[in-house]
């Protein structure tokens, strides 16, 4: 599976250039021309990284980042900011507002690709695309689950659930948060559905004794943890 990158940039020429360069590097690219459409997009789908221009009409790039960081469903989204301003104070300000890295225009496609790769690596999306805990190996490129070197058949929703929980291991998510992440906010799904899929994931892990990793936290929700 290749990584999804959301480009938020109002200038069509720059957007085109970014898309071209990132698609050539093997990424799936989505575009938003302003902050409002970016937030709308994020309501339905969470990409692996967002590339946000500083200068946007309406909500500014910095405000967009602030809003993303204030929303617990998407606050961990890695963000790289594009800036035409070279001033140190601007750069510092963007870091303080929670940007993972910034690139000053003009930049080369090579620099862009290197920065994005580095941020994705730091955020846990490693080169091999594998999430490994104990004997569980989730291959996020092939969407394949291997436990103790055996391939375990996993349905698409259970896969998403397990990937999300493993990626955020140790963190507790409410049913509502899991619904937002796995089904998106615009689709109406009953909270009970989350329990059904959690059960199915546990069933897949049970023959290996790893069902205990999918933990129910009373009154709070679910988490993936190797500790009891
Ligand atoms: Ca712009």
Report on the structure:
By secondary structure, this protein is an alpha/beta fold. The protein folds into two domains: 4-122, Rossmann fold; 130-224, Winged helix-like DNA-binding domain superfamily/Winged helix DNA-binding domain (Arc Repressor Mutant, subunit A), CATH 1.10.10. The chain has helices at residues 12-24, 35-44, 61-70, 88-96, 109-122, 156-167, 175-183, 191-205; strands at residues 4-8, 28-32, 49-53, 79-83, 101-104, 130-133, 136-139, 144-147, 150-152, 214-217, 221-224. The strands form three sheets. Strands 2-1-3-4-5 form a five-stranded parallel β-sheet, with helices on both faces. A four-stranded antiparallel β-sheet has the order 6-7-8-9, covered by helices on one side. Strands 10-11 form a two-stranded antiparallel sheet. Strand 8 (144-147) and strand 9 form a beta hairpin. Helix 2 runs parallel beside helix 3 (61-70) and helix 6 (156-167) crosses helix 7 (175-183). The longest helix is centred in the C-terminal third of the chain and has 15 residues, at 191-205. The protein is elongated and about 55 Å long. Calcium ion binds next to loops.
Short characterization:
With 228 residues, the chain is of the alpha/beta class. The protein is built from 8 helices and 11 strands. A 5-stranded parallel β-sheet has the order 2-1-3-4-5, sandwiched between helices.
What are the defining features of this structure?
alpha/beta, binds calcium ion, Arc Repressor Mutant, subunit A, five-stranded parallel beta sheet, 11 strands, 2 domains, four-stranded antiparallel beta sheet, Rossmann fold, about 230 residues, single chain
């Amino acid at each position: 599976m290749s990584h999804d990158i959301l480009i938020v940039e109002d200038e069509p020429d720059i957007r085109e250039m970014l898309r071209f360069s990132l698609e050539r590097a093997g990424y799936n690219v989505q575009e938003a021309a302003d902050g409002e459409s970016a937030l709308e997009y994020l309501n339905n789908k969470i990409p692996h990284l967002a590339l946000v221009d500083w200068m946007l009409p309406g909500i500014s790039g910095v405000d967009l980042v602030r809003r993303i960081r204030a929303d617990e469903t998407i606050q961990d989204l890695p963000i790289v900011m594009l800036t035409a301003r070279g001033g140190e104070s601007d750069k510092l300000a963007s870091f303080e507002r929670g940007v993972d890295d910034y690139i000053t225009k003009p930049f080369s496609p090579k620099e862009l690709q290197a920065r994005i790769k580095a941020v994705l690596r730091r955020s846990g999306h490693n080169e091999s695309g594998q999430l490994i805990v104990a004997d569980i190996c989730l291959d996020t490129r092939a969407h394949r689950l291997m436990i103790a070197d055996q391939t375990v058949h996993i349905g698409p929703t259970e896969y998403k659930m397990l990937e999300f929980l493993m990626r955020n291991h140790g963190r507790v998510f409410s049913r509502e948060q899991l619904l937002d992440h796995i089904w998106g906010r615009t689709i109406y799904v009953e909270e009970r559905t989350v329990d059904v899929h959690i059960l199915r994931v546990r069933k897949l892990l049970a023959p290996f004794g790893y069902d205990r990793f999918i933990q129910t936290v009373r009154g709070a929700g679910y988490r993936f943890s190797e500790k009891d």
